[in-house]
Amino acid sequence: MTGILALITDGFGGSGGIAQYNRDLITALAACRGTGRIVVLPRLGEAGAAPPAGVRQLKPRRNAAVYSLAAVKAALTLGPFDLVFCGHLHLAPLARLLSILLGVPLWLQLHGWEAWRVPRRIERRAAEGADLITAVSRYTRSRFLASCGVDPARVRVLPPTVAPCFGRGPKAAALAERYGLSGKRVLLTVGRLDADERRKGQDRIIGALPNIIAAFPDIVYLIVGGGDDKTRLEALAHDLAVADHVVFAGTVSSDELPQLYRLADVFVMPSTQEGFGIVFLEAAASGLRVIGGNADGSLDALADGAIGTAVDPADSSALVRAVTAGLAGDAAEPAGVARFGFANFARHVEQLLGRHLLSAAPAAAI
Fold first, then answer.
1. Looking at domain 173-339, does it have CATH number 3.30.465.10?
2. Which end of the chain is more exposed for a tag (fewer CB within 10 A), N or C?
3. Nearest 5°: phi and psi at 120?
4. Strand, coil or helix: 40
5. Contact 313, 271 (CB under 8 A)
6. Is pLDDT at 131 greater than 60 in this prediction?
């Protein structure tokens, strides 16, 4: 039976796209034939979170030094392990060291911006020693390969999966009333409002609202997500005299999020630094018309047009045209979402595990 030690930034009990991706991947690994035990060490998240059967998640360690010591201890005392999984490039040097110590293969996961820049020398050397590297999108894969001397054959694309809770359903009247959406057309963006990462494009949509309102006076722009950039976005909406058409919902619960998708007509996120964008799949599965950017990993989530429309994030006129066309259209029926179901994702994970790792030779020294 295969034992796996997983070093991740965030997992069970965590929030955000990377945490969800890690949960899905570890759940798929636990279901693979021959997998006996998975020990997960996260940097973030909640200690009391319940992982699936066969998975043990240790207490999160936020401090880097404490995390490293806990990882070494887990490797030496909780094994035996046949594979080290590393869920983030920043953790790759530690994961590489443990794979050498244990004499087992290393699987490294890439998400987005951390893999686009030229990595630090220690990260690059660790990545070059990985037996398998998976990236969430073709864009992330190509950006990584351009800056790191890794055999392209060892870098595969493993896109995220969309949870079954996202789908068509009745509109929640109580939520519509809470956010003032009753009888309105609704644009929706779901993403963090981080002043250090102004890349989701909420400001671009607010900037386009005067022209959108001219065509659809009943439009409301619903922004879901918390963060310290809210004040700037509120000021922008006020300066453009569209504040009455913008609603900030803040951070919402996982139970309410699927219902908020169903209240909307069009999902729009003209981002510029998206590794993939699982929110595009969640929106499409919920029956929304979907609009994203054409300059990053969003193209994979949009399935090159099969799931949604890609626009130049810097072209405000193109954004207005795409949004107004979406608002004027019928509910979407994106057949392309099916390819991102969990069954396909789990099948891909099992193939990667069997073909690229279980037969891999022990790791060589750095």
1. no
2. N
3. -60, 155
4. strand
5. yes
6. yes
B/e letters for 262-286, b = 16+ CB within 10 Å, e = fewer, are bbbbbbbbbbbbbbbbbbbbbbbbb
Beta-carbon count within 10 A of 194 CB: 14
> Helix H segments across the chain?
17-31, 64-77, 92-102, 113-116, 121-128, 138-147, 173-178, 202-215, 230-239, 257-263, 278-285, 298-301, 316-328, 342-352
Structural domain boundaries of the chain?
2-161+342-357, 173-339
- The count of C-alpha atoms lying within 13 angstroms of the C-alpha of 127, restricted to the half-sphere facing its C-beta, is 28
**pLDDT of 362 higher than 50:** no
Whether the predicted pLDDT of 242 surpasses 90? yes
Instruction: Specify burial of residue 170 (Cβ count, 10 A radius: 0-12, 13-18, 19+).
Output: exposed
Interval 246-295: pLDDT, tens? 999 999 988 899 999 999 999 999 998 888 989 999 999 999 999 999 98
**How far apart are alpha carbons 184 and 116 in whole angstroms?**
40
- Residue 182: pLDDT over 80: yes
Q: Find out if CATH 3.40.50.720 is the number for domain 2-161+342-357.
A: no
Q: How far is residue 184's CA from residue 277's CA, in Å, rounded to a whole number?
A: 26
CA pair distance 227, 323, nearest whole angstrom: 25
